[in-house]
Design brief:
It is a single chain. With 575 residues, the protein is of the alpha/beta class. The protein is built from 23 helices and 14 strands. The strands form 4 sheets. The chain has a 5-stranded mixed beta sheet with strand order 1-2-4-5-3. Strands 6-9-8-7 form a 4-stranded parallel beta sheet, sandwiched between helices. Strands 10-11-12 form a 3-stranded parallel beta sheet. Helix 8 runs parallel beside helix 10, helix 14 packs parallel to helix 18 and helix 19 packs antiparallel against helix 20. Belongs to the cation transport ATPase (P-type) (TC 3.A.3) family. Type IV subfamily. Its EC number is 7.6.2.1.
């Protein structure tokens, strides 16, 4: 970055600041060797370094600079390229002024946050513009690299000694040596049986990797680079320009696994990376609010990322997956009996349910319980999720929205619909169920099916609910009570604003029959039985980490004794 200033005496200077790798090649005077050694020593200590250089411009040189920049700015073709060439011509023959080194301390609990993310199965990459030694020291401080981590370098210095192809092949052989016998978790890269690897790559090497081959073939080094990164526990990208950070995110986002990417940064140079990722998080800090303004979420401290992902992210994924699949399930239960009914009514388009039931099923009878579930459900307590980050692995790779889970919900909906329809059908078939010998009609049959359905889908959600509050009880049991009260009022009163009431006295007549009550209890029980058996067997035979945590929490809450302490100085009893 350069700036041209004019002094009070009329002298014109160009001041340029940047990384040592960018400034030193442009310098022709100054204490280069002394400053270079000082910069390297400061970088090893973990300080962020910058070099500063300048040169004096005459009036004629300044006029030429202005003309060169103006011609590049107004170019209609290759404007960016011409601007870059203009900057290269201007920022040369500099005099080295000195270097700066500042301490950029890690935020509170930053190391704990990164360690928790790795335990949760999240692959962490660090993209920074710092010098390699500074960035490596920071990674050790934040526990991204461990003392037993073998660091692999893919830098310009190493590429100068060998070709890029040879370096990539050598690294590939190193990290994939045990791939035939041992497997590593592609998400976290953590393994107790394998050597722990960490990759360091700089911006110049990344430019060569991203550049297509000279023969014009579509194949390049990107896939080989990604294979190496998959086998590393952590990746450090140093000396990255803002656009290169975005390129890295894009490369990962469109890899063959199609992972969900999250980028977090606190400065304006992180904006392109934040915008490129699926989820962008900006940290509101001393470097301004540009990152926060361009992000999806903003946090004041990096440590809040742990609770945001491992707690709230976990909760909301579980809630949304249940919401989506439960809506599909309850509508399969709702529509499929109507489809079956057409085979028994001569395809006359006669509806099985009353129009009021058709309208209010998704609006009033079954909407509030799932809405509250999607807002408040906590299948595991917050403290347990914060204490055990590995629970996040249960929902990794879209585990709760896979085809297998979706097919199970579909099967459950179809099974319940068959139980509703044919259970009520066999109860009613050739049977007089009222005391005066009357046989139930089609509206009573549809009402019985609808009643069993409302109770079943609501109780199914009650079985899935782990976090019970008075609001849950009020909404779930209140929804069932509202359905009963509405049906009694809808069919028990002659409404003057209706031309006809085909449901008059239907619901009351159904409840006056003993077989109808028996059918409701039996059909609801049979409908819920497969789901109950599945939950019990899976919890006993193949419990997930979250289910084991639930069991341990319940055992602790049961076994924990109540301690009574009697104060000797007073007669008060404290708990």
């Amino acid at each position: 970055m350069s700036v041209i200033v004019k002094s009070a005496t009329g002298e014109i200077y160009l001041f340029c600041k940047g990384a040592d790798s960018s400034i030193f090649p442009r310098v022709i005077e100054g204490k280069v060797d002394q400053i270079r050694s000082r910069v390297e020593r400061n970088a090893v200590e973990g300080l962020r370094t910058l070099c500063v250089a300048y040169k004096r411009l005459t009036q004629e040189e300044y006029g030429g600079v202005c003309q060169l920049l103006q011609a590049a700015k107004v170019a209609l073709q290759d404007r960016e390229k011409k601007l870059a060439e203009a900057y290269e011509q201007i920022e040369k023959d500099l005099i080295l002024l000195g270097a700066t080194a500042v301490e950029d301390r890690l935020q509170e609990k930053a190391a704990d946050t990164i360690e928790a993310l790795q335990k949760a199965g999240v692959k962490v990459w660090v993209l920074t513009g710092d010098k390699m030694e500074t960035a490596a020291a920071t990674c050790y401080a934040c526990r991204l690299f461990r003392r037993d981590t073998q660091l692999l370098e893919l830098t310009t210095k190493k590429i100068e000694e060998q070709t890029l192809h040879d370096v990539l092949l050598e690294l590939s052989k190193t990290v994939l040596h045990y791939s035939g016998s041992l497997t590593r978790d592609n998400l976290s890269g953590l393994s107790t049986d394998m050597q722990d690897y960490g990759l360091i790559i700089d911006g110049a090497a990344l430019s060569l990797i991203m550049k297509p081959r000279e023969d014009g073939s579509s194949s390049n080094y990107r896939e080989l680079f990604l294979d190496i990164c998959r086998s590393c526990s952590a990746v450090l990208c140093c000396r990255m320009a803002p656009l290169q950070k975005a390129q890295i995110v894009k490369l990962i986002k469109f890899s063959k696994e199609h992972p969900i990417t999250l980028a977090i940064g606190d400065g304006a140079n992180d904006v392109s990376m934040i915008l490129e990722a699926h989820v962008g998080i900006g940290v509101i800090g001393k470097e301004g609010r540009q990152a926060a303004r361009n992000s999806d979420y903003a946090v004041p401290k990096f440590k809040h990322l742990k609770k945001m992902l491992l707690v709230h992210g976990h909760f909301y994924y579980v809630r949304i997956s249940e919401l989506v699949q439960y809506f599909f399930y309850k509508n399969v239960c709702f529509i499929f009996p109507q489809f079956l009914y057409q085979f028994f009514c001569g395809f006359s388009q006669q509806t099985l349910y009353d129009t009021a039931y058709l309208t209010l099923y998704n609006i009033s009878f079954t909407s509030l319980p799932i809405l509250l579930y999607s807002l408040m459900e906590q299948h595991v307590s917050i403290d347990v999720l914060k204490r055990d980050p590995s629970l996040y692995r249960d929902i990794a790779k879209n585990a709760l929205l896979r085809w297998r889970v979706f097919i199970y919900w579909t099967f459950l909906g179809v099974f319940d619909a068959l139980v509703f329809f044919f259970g009520a059908y066999f109860v009613f078939e050739n049977t007089t169920v009222t005391s005066n010998g009357q046989i139930f009609g089609n509206w009573t049959f549809g009402t019985l099916v609808f009643t069993v359905m409302v109770f079943t889908v609501t109780l199914k959600l009650a079985l899935d609910t782990r976090y019970w509050t008075w609001i849950n009880h009020f909404v779930i049991w209140g929804s069932l009570l509202f359905y009963v009260v509405f049906s009694l009022l809808w069919g028990g009163i002659i409404w003057p604003f209706l031309n006809y009431q085909r449901m008059y006295y239907v619901f009351i007549q159904m409840l006056s029959s003993g077989p109808a009550w028996l059918a409701i209890v039996l059909l609801v029980t049979v409908s819920l039985l497969p789901d109950v058996l599945k939950k019990v067997l899976c919890r006993q035979l193949r419990p997930t980490a979250a289910e084991r945590a639930q069991t341990e929490t319940q055992c602790l809450s049961v076994e924990q004794p109540t301690v009574f302490m009697l104060s000797q100085t007073s007669s008060s009893l404290s708990f």
